[in-house]
């Protein structure tokens, strides 16, 4: 290998160029996965109806928990990996890679098999009723048995991106997304199977994505190597600590889905749950877009932090926050002007479902104006090891403020205010962040500006 091949672009390229190098493949990959989720919802809603769609949505938190576990160990391990690479400690980085992926597989297999034994009461605990339970149960069983495929693919993708190959990580996500659409179309529309087979199709698609990621081992600049595994308790603790904000963020998605399903079921019945399932599918697109921004920023900030490049680190935060804010405003405008056609994509639902979902999109999308900013700042604090602050941002926006609003105001002001719990939480957190940054003298912009 020549010196030119060994030279890391993070050491010599401009911050703006590095950001684009990581952002574009990350966003393309995440948006394709998001579109894939929406297409899944469109196919299930149009072929099997709104009740089946609601059942799949109820089972969704199981998938989210598996992803959360992969992010906990994956982001935690990858953050440490990039810091070690910034410090030029390649052997330590390789052990972190081996250690993290081995633990991910062992943990998710254990959790999946345990939950499978309790899947019937779990379905009802997640908000199912007599109508939606059969669909939720069928979908859930598949993910409990084969969820380790998702966790391994997701974590491996994170490490490949952190090892300087964001384009391959994108290619794997593209493979997963496109193959999932094709496989599920055949299963639902050609063979006329149900939600269980659709879930199996999604597992097969993830396996194909994992095969694509494996190609990174054969690239010239790959530092990812399997080394001898041994349990390192200190590393486990540090990995779990660094990855906890990402785990909490993903679990927060489950909390968001479960809490909203329960509230809509209580205040609006099956109609409310069906309307929320539509909005939740659309929300997945926006959420994954902001997650893509965080995924692009994390390896860069972790590397600069390990290399002690403070100026580059701050410049990266500034660029990322401005990009996230601009994207959030665009998403908000889309929600205001395209709510009806978006809802129409998911099928010819009854008028009351359509009406509630349209109002939901217009109200809910106000959250996106600042949601991306909160994502970037959480990722920044996590990447530099300030886990307490990163955890507070996540807990405040996805649990504390969201649940405080959700569990009180709708009982007094009606079902439509359920949609405002997330916007309220996001705005409250961004205001608190501005106050925190000012008090601690943290400035990422020029001439003493915050951003």
From TrEMBL:
<feature type="transmembrane region" description="Helical">
    <location>
        <begin position="168"/>
        <end position="187"/>
    </location>
</feature>
<dbReference type="InterPro" id="IPR045070">
    <property type="entry name" value="MATE_MepA-like"/>
</dbReference>
<keyword id="KW-0046">Antibiotic resistance</keyword>
<dbReference type="InterPro" id="IPR002528">
    <property type="entry name" value="MATE_fam"/>
</dbReference>
<keyword id="KW-0813">Transport</keyword>
<keyword id="KW-1133">Transmembrane helix</keyword>
<dbReference type="Pfam" id="PF01554">
    <property type="entry name" value="MatE"/>
</dbReference>
<dbReference type="GO" id="GO:0015297">
    <property type="term" value="F:antiporter activity"/>
</dbReference>
<feature type="transmembrane region" description="Helical">
    <location>
        <begin position="392"/>
        <end position="412"/>
    </location>
</feature>
<feature type="transmembrane region" description="Helical">
    <location>
        <begin position="138"/>
        <end position="156"/>
    </location>
</feature>
<dbReference type="InterPro" id="IPR048279">
    <property type="entry name" value="MdtK-like"/>
</dbReference>
<feature type="transmembrane region" description="Helical">
    <location>
        <begin position="284"/>
        <end position="307"/>
    </location>
</feature>
<dbReference type="GO" id="GO:0005886">
    <property type="term" value="C:plasma membrane"/>
</dbReference>
<dbReference type="GO" id="GO:0046677">
    <property type="term" value="P:response to antibiotic"/>
</dbReference>
<feature type="transmembrane region" description="Helical">
    <location>
        <begin position="96"/>
        <end position="118"/>
    </location>
</feature>
<feature type="transmembrane region" description="Helical">
    <location>
        <begin position="240"/>
        <end position="264"/>
    </location>
</feature>
<keyword id="KW-1003">Cell membrane</keyword>
<dbReference type="InterPro" id="IPR051327">
    <property type="entry name" value="MATE_MepA_subfamily"/>
</dbReference>
<feature type="transmembrane region" description="Helical">
    <location>
        <begin position="20"/>
        <end position="39"/>
    </location>
</feature>
<keyword id="KW-0472">Membrane</keyword>
<feature type="transmembrane region" description="Helical">
    <location>
        <begin position="199"/>
        <end position="219"/>
    </location>
</feature>
<comment type="similarity">
    <text>Belongs to the multi antimicrobial extrusion (MATE) (TC 2.A.66.1) family. MepA subfamily.</text>
</comment>
<feature type="transmembrane region" description="Helical">
    <location>
        <begin position="359"/>
        <end position="380"/>
    </location>
</feature>
<dbReference type="GO" id="GO:0042910">
    <property type="term" value="F:xenobiotic transmembrane transporter activity"/>
</dbReference>
<feature type="transmembrane region" description="Helical">
    <location>
        <begin position="319"/>
        <end position="339"/>
    </location>
</feature>
<keyword id="KW-0812">Transmembrane</keyword>
<protein>
    <recommendedName>
        <fullName>Multidrug export protein MepA</fullName>
    </recommendedName>
</protein>
<feature type="transmembrane region" description="Helical">
    <location>
        <begin position="51"/>
        <end position="75"/>
    </location>
</feature>
<feature type="transmembrane region" description="Helical">
    <location>
        <begin position="418"/>
        <end position="437"/>
    </location>
</feature>
């Amino acid at each position: 290998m020549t010196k030119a091949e060994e030279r890391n672009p993070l050491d010599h390229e401009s911050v703006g160029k590095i950001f684009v190098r990581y952002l574009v493949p990350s966003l393309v990959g995440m948006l394709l996965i998001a579109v894939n989720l929406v297409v899944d919802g469109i196919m299930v809603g149009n072929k099997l109806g709104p009740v089946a769609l609601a059942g799949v949505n109820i089972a969704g938190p199981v998938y989210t928990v598996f992803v959360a576990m992969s992010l906990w160990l994956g982001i935690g391990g990858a953050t440490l990996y990039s810091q070690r690479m910034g410090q030029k400690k390649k052997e330590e980085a390789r052990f972190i890679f081996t250690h993290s992926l081995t633990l991910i597989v062992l943990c998710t297999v254990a959790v999946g098999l345990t939950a499978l034994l309790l899947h019937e009461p779990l379905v009802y605990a997640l908000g199912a009723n007599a109508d939606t339970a059969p669909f939720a149960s069928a979908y859930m069983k598949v993910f409990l048995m084969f969820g380790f495929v998702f966790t391994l693919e997701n974590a491996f993708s994170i490490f490949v991106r952190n090892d300087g190959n964001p384009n391959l990580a994108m290619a794997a996500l593209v493979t997963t997304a496109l193959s999932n659409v094709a496989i599920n179309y055949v299963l639902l529309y050609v063979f006329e199977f149900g939600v269980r087979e659709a879930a199996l199709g999604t597992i097969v698609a993830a396996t194909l994505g994992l095969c694509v990621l494996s190609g990174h081992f054969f690239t010239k600049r790959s530092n990812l190597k399997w080394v001898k595994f041994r349990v390192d308790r200190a590393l486990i603790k540090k990995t779990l600590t660094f990855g906890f904000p990402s785990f909490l963020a993903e679990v927060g998605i489950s909390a968001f889905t479960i809490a909203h399903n329960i509230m809509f079921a209580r205040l609006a019945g099956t109609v409310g749950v069906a309307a929320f399932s539509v909005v939740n599918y659309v929300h997945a697109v926006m959420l994954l877009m902001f997650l893509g921004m965080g995924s692009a920023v994390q390896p860069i900030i972790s590397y600069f932090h390990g290399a002690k490049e403070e100026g580059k680190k701050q410049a990266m935060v500034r660029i990322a926050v401005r990009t996230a804010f601009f994207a959030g405003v665009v998403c908000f405008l889309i929600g205001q002007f395209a709510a009806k056609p978006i809802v129409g994509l998911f099928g010819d639902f009854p008028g009351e479902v359509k009406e509630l979902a349209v109002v939901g999109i217009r109200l809910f999308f106000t959250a996106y104006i600042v949601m991306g900013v909160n994502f970037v700042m959480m990722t920044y604090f996590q990447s530099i090891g300030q886990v307490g602050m990163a955890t507070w941002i996540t807990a405040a926006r996805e649990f504390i403020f969201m649940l405080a609003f959700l569990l009180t105001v709708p009982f007094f002001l009606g079902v439509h205010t359920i949609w405002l719990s997330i916007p309220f939480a996001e705005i409250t957190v961004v205001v608190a962040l501005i106050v925190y940054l000012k008090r601690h003298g943290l400035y990422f912009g020029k001439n003493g500006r915050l951003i």
